[in-house]
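Prompt: May I have another protein with tokenized structure?
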Amino acid sequence: MPYTDTHISIPPQLPEILKQYTKGAIRTQPPDLLQWSADYFTAVARGDIPPVRERTERAPLSNWADLTPEILKVLHQRVGGRLIVHADELAHLWKVLNLPTDLFESVMNVGHFTEEVEWLKFLALSSSSLGVNITRTLKIICEVLSNDDSGPARIPFSTFQFLYTYIAEVDGEISLSHVNRMLNYIEQEIIGPDGLIKVNDFTRNPQVKLE
């Protein structure tokens, strides 16, 4: 019996799945389409966010994409709230997003990371490559970590305290006494009962000088 089109049953979800996949591939422009496709459909099957560049991100002029706060937020979402991430997994996520390998290696070296990577420290050092100073770096981190899309970016003060202390330690030019003085002021004079710190609390308050 000849094979006819009447024997083909197209799943109703297929056109939309292929449409979103095609749009994602065009927007992302991955250098290795097969590997990217495998990562894309694996993410979709797991219910994770697929490795697609945001519309607001400009297309790369080379094979490497620029690291942006938006891409850092995608990385953070992929980490899924874990404090420790295996270096191989992190390297894979970095590669999927077409980010420069030399930047990844630099962050790993500066942070003295080995097989197990403290995600918040890795995020802090990655953000520092975008920020011109510590205040800008912490602003980027807060925007990446914040879950509040309807208002100003904000994170728990305890997280801010950890990140500020770590970045200042790596920077090496800000004394521990200055860091403690700023943290004490913020905790006593700014932080409310919710225990959260907003970006404006340390970027627009003349009494807060993180540098």
In short: Residues 55-63 have pLDDT under 50 and may be disordered. The chain has ten helices and four strands. The first helix runs from residue 14 to 28. The first strand starts at residue 84 and ends at 86.
